[in-house]
Each structure stands twice: as structure tokens, then as C-alpha cells.
Design brief:
The protein has about 450 residues and is mostly helical. Among the domains are: about 110 residues, Cytochrome c-like domain (Cytochrome Bc1 Complex, Chain D, domain 2); about 160 residues, no CATH class. Helices cover about 55% and strands about 0% of the residues. The protein contains 20 helices and no strands. It is extended. The N and C termini lie far apart (about 85 Å). Bound molecules: heme C (6 copies). The site of one heme C has 21 residues, from helix 13, helix 16 and helix 17.
Length: about 450
């Protein structure tokens, strides 16, 4: 093979590869374009918002926003900031979490709204913050609308440096953004793909040059030439040891991942919901008939264990209610035989961990639902929380101590105020110390 023919092969190959290269460049550039497009909208949105009222009905008038800002600074800043939780939630993008009308009624009459509207989101906020925002009935609907306009205008501003103050870290609801910027990741990917592609091109060139060389070489036996000329054979590929090894390796990796995940989850019984010996329904008793949790779980306010009620407690009602039901007859049978009903235990910490109900319910002021979920809606109780150490610790990091009307905490609170602007969290009173939870 002459120099000339090598050059020709190169040219020919290069021409054939051109479309592929063009495709690659195109996809790279469109990926970057997308990134910039994603980064851009805030600025555009503000610009267009300044001229026309937007589709969501929130005014975008500068004057309205300015009066909203004044109202906000006078009435809201003691409990809210945009990018962090103070007493109430961070208000950035709050307007996107509500229907406009609901948001206005909520801001004016929070407690009434939460109690009467059946709005799951609002009820969730209350469950999380454990206090009602005060009424703002002294503000007219138009004034509240201007507040919403200000919230929106402030939210769509390109993110400024976060207004964090030194102090304990706070845990905002997890967002989709991870630590590493998306753009960086896609850039690295693009570079990797490009490098791989360049390798591929070089390999194809080399193969072709070598093929030509062998084809043109005198004295190569025909069967060897046939070997060089052979086309890619799919059936042979599937039979090849390369293919088999890859499939085996991938399968092994997959199995180990599944095994690893299940080992990590050993001992975690979130969602555990065993069948009970009597079809006792919390939905009926605690939900429909609104029997207080503490009527049956008498220990929850007073001691370590919440306690499962004995059959006698059931008899307070069931000696008269539905005595003919087969399920109720099981209660009678237990009492006659003087044997306890064998309820299957659902929540169960390992012996090395110490958990006390009264500390959380009576002192901490937590609701049962914070940890057990909406028990009053469960036909069959299921374990709502993971009950892992991380779960305990996370809540201790995030939850402010309920120090109101509790003189025990007065000194600690005033000391805490001198070092931090954040409310005093459980971690600040030792809630992360190993010995508090481990015997
Ligand atoms: C005394 C503290 C306090 C003040 C003052 C206060 N808020 Fe709130 N705000 C809260 C709490 C607590 C919540 C959580 C909901 C609940 O439990 O009622 C909340 C929730 C909100 C929400 C819902 C946030 C979301 O993430 O969806 C908005 C919107 C809001 N407040 C706006 C305002 C505005 C506007 C003002 C001023 C007029 C204001 N708040 C004043 C405590 C306060
Ligand atoms: C009429 C009595 C009664 C009332 C009222 C009641 N419970 Fe129960 N609870 C029981 C009985 C009996 C069991 C055991 C059977 C079962 O798991 O369903 C139980 C089980 C539980 C369990 C699971 C215990 C375990 O094994 O880990 C939790 C958690 C619980 N209740 C929470 C609540 C909460 C929260 C409320 C109030 C919303 C409530 N209960 C109201 C009788 C009651
Ligand atoms: C404060 C009163 C009260 C107590 C205490 C109480 N129940 Fe009930 N229970 C009721 C009422 C009311 C009904 C609904 C009866 C009906 O559907 O007519 C009911 C229904 C039931 C049913 C469904 C019966 C059927 O066949 O429809 C079961 C099972 C039951 N209770 C079990 C228990 C058990 C077990 C306990 C003790 C842990 C208990 N109850 C404690 C008031 C009570
Ligand atoms: C801070 C979280 C938390 C709160 C709030 C809470 N629980 Fe529990 N609950 C637990 C944990 C953790 C266990 C497992 C305890 C163990 O295995 O030692 C448990 C176990 C139980 C059990 C079964 C075992 C026992 O202790 O008798 C019942 C019943 C129960 N809780 C009812 C209640 C009721 C009723 C309330 C509200 C008055 C409540 N819990 C509030 C975390 C909580
Ligand atoms: C929903 C939030 C929440 C969860 C979940 C939670 N705790 Fe707590 N915990 C609190 C609060 C609030 C207090 C502060 C009560 C007080 O004022 O003493 C507290 C206090 C404690 C204390 C006393 C700390 C001290 O320094 O006095 C211990 C011990 C404790 N929790 C153990 C646990 C264990 C163990 C778990 C997990 C099985 C757990 N907690 C899960 C909210 C929570
Ligand atoms: C707020 C309560 C709490 C504190 C503080 C705490 N733990 Fe735990 N820890 C638990 C609970 C609850 C479990 C059981 C978790 C489970 O069953 O998955 C646990 C489990 C463990 C385990 C067993 C492994 C596991 O994950 O199940 C070890 C080891 C452990 N803790 C060590 C520590 C050390 C060391 C510290 C101090 C740095 C500490 N814990 C502080 C609540 C706590």
C-alpha cells in the first residue's frame, strides 16, 4: 500500500465520519444552550412581570410590590425570611405552593383556614411548625394581595447570596439541587464523551489502515485474508466470551446492589403492618368516634411506654356495644380465660436505645402524629417512621424546644439567645449526646 492510498483511506473515512461529528457537536451545543436557558428565566420573568400582570393573577406592578414590601417589613419579618426558616417557613416561592385565593385566606385567618379547609398542605405546615401563624385580619384582601406580589417578586429575583447568619445549621426541605452544580456535571460528561469519541475515531482509522495494508500485502494466505474481510457477526458476538463475561459481571453487580440495599435495611420496619388477633380499627375508634389516644394509651403522657390497653379498657364500652359481634366475642373470651389479648407489637427499638414518650409528648409538646402518622385514619396500624437513629437525630437537629411556660428552660433560652439568633433546638440541650439515648 502506498502513501497515496493511505491518505485516500483517511480522506474517505473522514468524509464518512463527518455526519457523526456534526451530530456530536450539535448535541453538545444544544446541551449547553439548555443549561443557559435554565439559568436565564428569572431575569426574563422579572422583566416581563414588570410590564404585564401574569397569568397567575398576582399583580406585577412596581407600586403594588413596593407597598407589599412595606407591609412585609412591618408585619412579617419577625417570623419569616425568604431563604431560611425562622419561626415560620422560608417564603421563597411560597406563591407557587398555594392557589392564590387560598393563600390570601390563609394569611388573613391561618388557624381558621387550617381547621376548616381540609387543605392537606396547610395542615402539613401546621404539623411541622406546631403553631398557628397569628391572624392578619387587620389587612384588607388587597393589602394581602400586595404582600403576595412582593413574595413573588422577591422569589423570582436571581438568587442573591444566601442571607444566612452564623448559627446552628438549619434543614430546609430537601431540594432537587445537589451540592455539585448541574452545569459542571454535564460539562464533565460532555468532555468524557468527546474523549471517548476521539478514541473511537482513531481506532477506526487504525483498523482501516491495517486492513488495507494486509489486503494489499503479497503472500498473505487466502483464509487469513478472509479473516480480515469478515463482516461483524451478531450471532458470533452473542456467543463470544466477551459478551458472556460482560453479562455475568453486570448481573453480579446488580445482585450485589440489591443484596447490599437489603442488608442496609435490616432492622428497619417502616411500613410494618402485621395482622392483629382482633380486627381493632383506629380509624373507627380514634377517627370516627374520636376517642382520645390517651384514653387507651395511658402511659404516653406519664411515662416511658405508651402502653397497649388491657381488655378491661375495651370492656368499658364493649360490655354494651356490639356484644354479638364475633370480633368482640374474642374480647370476652380473653377475659373469661384470664389471658391477655396477644397484640402483635409493631414499634420496637433495639434494647440498647432509650426512648421516652412523656419526654416527647408532655415536655416536648409533640403530637402522636409527628411520629406515628395519621393513626386515626388507619384501619390497621402501620409503622409510619423508620425509627432509625438518623431519624431521631434529624428531628433533634430541626425541632425547637418547646420552652413556653416552662420555667425549667428560662435560663437556657436566655443564654442561647446570646450566642444564636436561631430558636433553641433539641440538639442545643444535649439531644445529640450518645448517652441520652443509649444505655
Ligand atoms: C408570629 C410568627 C409569624 C408571623 C408574624 C407571620 N407568620 Fe407566616 N407563618 C408562620 C408560621 C408558624 C407558619 C407555618 C404555618 C402555620 O403553622 O400556621 C407560617 C406560614 C406562612 C406562609 C405559608 C408558607 C409556605 O411555605 O407555604 C405564608 C405565605 C406566610 N406565613 C406569610 C406571612 C406573611 C405575609 C406575614 C406577614 C403579614 C406572616 N406570614 C407573618 C408564622 C408567622
Ligand atoms: C380504644 C382504644 C384505643 C384508642 C382510642 C387508640 N388506640 Fe392505639 N392501639 C390500641 C390497641 C388495642 C392497639 C394494639 C392493636 C393494634 O396495633 O391495632 C393499638 C396500637 C397502637 C399503636 C401501635 C403499637 C405497636 O404495637 O407498636 C400505635 C402507634 C397507636 N396505637 C397509636 C395511637 C394513637 C396515636 C391514637 C390516637 C390517635 C390511638 N392509638 C388511639 C387501642 C387504642
Ligand atoms: C369508648 C368506647 C370504646 C372503647 C373503649 C372500645 N371500643 Fe371498640 N367500638 C366502640 C364503638 C362505638 C364501636 C362501633 C360499634 C358499631 O359499629 O356500632 C366499636 C367497634 C369495635 C369493633 C368492631 C366490631 C364490629 O364487629 O363491627 C371492634 C373489633 C372493637 N370495637 C374492638 C375494640 C377493642 C379491642 C377495644 C379495646 C382495646 C375497644 N374496641 C375499645 C367503642 C369503644
Ligand atoms: C417523638 C416520637 C414519638 C411520639 C411523639 C409518640 N411516639 Fe409512640 N412510639 C415512638 C417510638 C420510637 C416507639 C417505640 C418505642 C420502643 O420500642 O421502646 C413508640 C411506641 C409506641 C407504642 C407501642 C409501644 C409502647 O410504647 O407501648 C404505642 C402504643 C405508642 N407509641 C403510642 C403513642 C401515642 C398514643 C402517642 C401520642 C400521645 C405517641 N405514641 C407519641 C415514638 C413516638
Ligand atoms: C418529631 C421529633 C422527634 C423525634 C422523631 C425524636 N425526638 Fe427526642 N426529642 C424531641 C424533642 C422536641 C425533645 C425535647 C423535649 C424537652 O423539651 O425535653 C426531645 C428530647 C429527647 C431526649 C431528651 C434529651 C435531653 O437532652 O433532655 C431524648 C433522650 C430523646 N429525645 C430521645 C429520642 C429517641 C431515642 C428518638 C428516636 C427513637 C427520638 N428522641 C426521636 C423530638 C423528637
Ligand atoms: C436521639 C437519640 C440517639 C442519640 C443521641 C444517639 N443514638 Fe445511637 N441509636 C439510636 C437509636 C434509636 C438506635 C437504633 C436504630 C435502629 O434500630 O435502627 C441507635 C443505634 C445505634 C447503634 C447501632 C447501629 C445502628 O445503626 O443500629 C450504634 C453503634 C449507635 N447508635 C451509636 C451511637 C453513638 C456513638 C452516638 C453518639 C455519637 C449515638 N448513637 C447517639 C438513638 C440515638
Amino acid at each position: 500500500m502506498t502513501d497515496h492510498s493511505i491518505k485516500r483511506t483517511l480522506d474517505l473515512k473522514f468524509v464518512r465520519l463527518l455526519p457523526a461529528i456534526a451530530l456530536l457537536l450539535f448535541s453538545l451545543s444544544s446541551a449547553t444552550a439548555q443549561d443557559t436557558a435554565q439559568a436565564a428565566p428569572p431575569a426574563e420573568a422579572t422583566a416581563s412581570a414588570a410590564v404585564a400582570p401574569s397569568a397567575d393573577g398576582i399583580p406585577a406592578d412596581e407600586a403594588v410590590i413596593t407597598s407589599g414590601r412595606a407591609l412585609y417589613e412591618n408585619n412579617c419579618t419577625q417570623c419569616h425570611a425568604f431563604n431560611e426558616v425562622v419561626v415560620g417557613p422560608a417564603l421563597k416561592d411560597a406563591h407557587t405552593r398555594w392557589k392564590l385565593n387560598n393563600m390570601i385566606s390563609f394569611i388573613r385567618y391561618p388557624q381558621k383556614y387550617i381547621e376548616t379547609s381540609r387543605d392537606k398542605y396547610a395542615q402539613g405546615l401546621y404539623a411541622q411548625y406546631k403553631q398557628y401563624m397569628p391572624n392578619h385580619d387587620f389587612l384588607s384582601e388587597a393589602e394581602v394581595l400586595s404582600l403576595v406580589a412582593y413574595i413573588k417578586a422577591e422569589s423570582v429575583k436571581p438568587a442573591a447570596a444566601p442571607d444566612k447568619i452564623a448559627g446552628p445549621p438549619i434543614f430546609p426541605p430537601p431540594t432537587k439541587d445537589s451540592g455539585v452544580s448541574n452545569e459542571l456535571v454535564s460539562l464533565i460528561f460532555a468532555i468524557l464523551i468527546f474523549v471517548l469519541f476521539v478514541f473511537l475515531v482513531i481506532l477506526v482509522f487504525l483498523i482501516n489502515i491495517l486492513k488495507r495494508f494486509i489486503e494489499n500485502k503479497e503472500g498473505v494466505p487466502d483464509d487469513e485474508k478472509a479473516l480480515v474481510d469478515q463482516k461483524f457477526d451478531l450471532a458470533a458476538f452473542f456467543k463470544s466470551s466477551f459478551f458472556r463475561t460482560s453479562v455475568t459481571v453486570i448481573a453480579l453487580l446488580f445482585i450485589s446492589k440489591v443484596a447490599f440495599d437489603s442488608i442496609i435495611n435490616i432492622g428497619i420496619q417502616q411500613g410494618y403492618s402485621p395482622k392483629q388477633p382482633i380486627a381493632f380499627s383506629h380509624k373507627l375508634h380514634a377517627g370516627e368516634y374520636q376517642i382520645d389516644c390517651n384514653y387507651c394509651h395511658t402511659g404516653a403522657k406519664k411515662g416511658k411506654a405508651a402502653v397497649i390497653p388491657s381488655a378491661n379498657v375495651c370492656m368499658n364500652c364493649h360490655n354494651a356495644i356490639k356484644p354479638e359481634s364475633p370480633e368482640i366475642k374474642k374480647i370476652y373470651a380473653a377475659i373469661e380465660k384470664d389471658q391477655p389479648i396477644e397484640w402483635v407489637r409493631i414499634h420496637n427499638l433495639p434494647d440498647h436505645a432509650y426512648f421516652n414518650h412523656a419526654q416527647h409528648v408532655t415536655v416536648g409538646g409533640l403530637e402522636c402524629q409527628n411520629c406515628h402518622g395519621q393513626i386515626q385514619e388507619m384501619e390497621v396500624v402501620q409503622q409510619y417512621s423508620p425509627l432509625t437513629m438518623g431519624w431521631c437525630i434529624n428531628c433533634h437537629r430541626e425541632t425547637a424546644v418547646n420552652a413556653e411556660n416552662n420555667a425549667y428552660y428560662d435560663k437556657m433560652v436566655s443564654l442561647h439567645k446570646t450566642v444564636s439568633k436561631q430558636p433553641m433546638k433539641v440538639k442545643d440541650i444535649g439531644g445529640l449526646e450518645c448517652a441520652k439515648c443509649h444505655y
